[in-house]
Amino acid sequence: MNLHVKQGFSRGFNHEEMPLINRVEIDKQIKMIDLTPQDLQLIHRLQPFVLEMVDNIVDDFYKNLEIEPSLLEIINLHSSIMRLKKTLKQHLIEMFNGEIDDLFIAKRVKIAKMHVMIGLSTKWYVCSFQNLLASLSKVIDNQFQHKQDLMIAVRALSKLINFEQQLVLEAYDAETDRIRLEIEKQKLSVQDQVANASQNLASISEQTNINFHQLIMQSNEIIDLANTGTDLALLAQKRAEKGKEQLINQTNNMTNIHQSVDDISRDVDVLLDISKQMEEIVSIVKGIADQTNLLSLNAAIEAARAGDAGLGFAVVASEVRKLSEKTKNSVKDVSNLIKNTNMQVQDLTSSLEQIRGEVQRGTDNMHETEQHFEQILETMTETMTQHKNIKGELGSLGDVVKEIGEAFDQVAKSAEQLTEITKELV
C-alpha cells in the first residue's frame, strides 16, 4: 500500500508562505524507504510514550550540543536554549502524529531555511538527529516485550527520521542553491555596476583631464593677459606721472603768470596815479596859461595907453600872449593824450582782471586735474598690485589644477584596474 502526501493548507502557514511541493518526488522518496501507513500508525501509537519522556529527550538533545561550543554561540546569537527547547518539544510531538501532510513538509523546509540562515552546517544537523534517534530508540525499547515488535517499531522510527532528514537536507540544498544563485546574480549585478561605473569613471576622468588641460591653457593665457595688463598699467602709471609733472610745471607757470599779472596791475595802478598827477599838473599849467594870456592882454591894453613909450612892451605882451596860446593848445593836446592813456590803462586794468580770473580758473582746473592724476596713479598702483595678486593666484591655481589632473590620471588607472578585477569575478 502506497502512502500519499495529504494536500491542503494547515494553520500556521498562509498561501504565500507554503513552499511548492513536488508530490511525485515525495511519493517516490516514501516508496523508496518503504514508509507505509502501518508504520505511521505504529508511530502514532508511540506518541504517548514520547510525550511522557519528551522533556528528558529535549534536555539530552541540548546537553549533547555542549560538545561543540560554536553551536551554542549560534543559538545564543539568534535565539535562546529555552525557546528552542519549546520548539523542539512541539516538533517531536507533531512528528509522532502519524501524518505526513503539506504542513509537515512545509515545517521541515522552514527548519532547513532557518538553519541555512543562521549558518548551521549540515553535519551538525545530521549529528544532532542521530542523537535524537538514539534517545527515541531508548524510549521505544522500554515499551515492547518481544524483540520482533521492537525491531518493527525501530525500523518505522528510522524510516520517519530518514524521511525527515531527506526533507531537511533537500531543503538545505535547495536553499543553499538559491542563495548561491542569488549571490551569483548579485555578483554579476555588482560586476555590471562596477564595470559601468569604471567605464563612466574612465570616461569622466578622460573628459575631466581634457578640461583640466584646457583650464591650464586658459590659466596660462590669463597669466599672459595679467602680465600684459601689468605692463600696460606700468606704462599708464609712467605716463600719468609724466602728465602730473607737466601739470605741476603748468601750475607753476600759471602761478608765475598770476604773479606777473599782479605786478602789472600794481604798475598800472602806479601809472594811473601818475596820470592823475599829470592831469593836475596840466590843469595847473592850463590855469597858468589862461592867467598869462589874461595878463598879456592887460599888458597890451596898458601898452596902448602908454603910446609910443609902451610900444616895446606891447610887442612883448603880444609874444607872451602867443606863447600862452601855444602853451594852452599844447596842454590841451597833453590832456587829451592823458585821457586816452587813462582810457587805455582802464581797458588794460579790465583785461588784467579778466586775465587774472582766467589764470585763477586755469590754476584751479590744474589743481583738479592734478588730483585726478593723483587718483589715476593710485588706481594704476592698485591695478598693478591686483594684477600681481591675480598672477600669483593663477600660478597657485595652475599648480592645484596640475595636481588634480595627476589625481584624475591616477583615478583613470584605478578605474582600469577595477575593470580588470571585475572581469576576474566571473
Describe this structure as you would to a colleague.
The structure is a single chain. With 426 residues, the protein is mainly alpha-helical. 88% of the residues lie in helices and 0% in strands. It starts with 22 loop residues before the first helix and ends with a helix. The protein is rod-shaped, with a radius of gyration of 68 Å. The chain has helices at 23-32, 37-45, 47-64, 69-78, 81-95, 102-118, 122-141, 147-306, 311-424.
Low-confidence blocks of residues: 4-16
- In what range is the share of β-strand residues? under 5%
How many structural domains can be distinguished in the coordinates? 2
Q: What's the CATH H-level homologous superfamily of the largest domain?
A: Methyl-accepting chemotaxis protein
Mean pLDDT level: 78
List keywords for this structure.
single chain; 426 residues; mainly alpha; Globin-like; Helix Hairpins; 2 domains; 9 helices; rod-shaped
